[in-house]
Amino acid sequence: MQIDEFGIRDEYHDAFGTLHHTSAETRAALLAAMGIVPGQPPPRRAVRVVRPGRSSR
To answer: Which CA distances in Å does 6 have to 10, 16, 44?
Structure first.
């Protein structure tokens, strides 16, 4: 099982254990939902840790 740079697997098992392959249409829909432009690398965003009681600003 392969996972691409966006975290999308090329196949998965459903709740009944049946193997499914991720179609090109499904992959495109997932990328669009994440706001990814086809052909561009994943955005590099810094991780921000906010402790309880602190502001994120």
So the answer is: 11, 26, 11
Neighbours of 6 (CB within 10 A): 13
pTM of whole model > 0.70?
A: no
Give the E-state strand segments of 1-57 in sequence order.
Answer: 11-13, 19-21
Q: What is the DSSP letter of 7?
A: S
Query: C-alpha angle with apex 44: 43 to 47, nearest 5 degrees?
Result: 125
Encoded tokens for 39:
């052909």
What is residue 28's predicted lDDT score, i.e. its pLDDT? Answer: 92
Domain count, the chain: 1
User: Which residues span the domain enclosing 9?
Assistant: 1-57
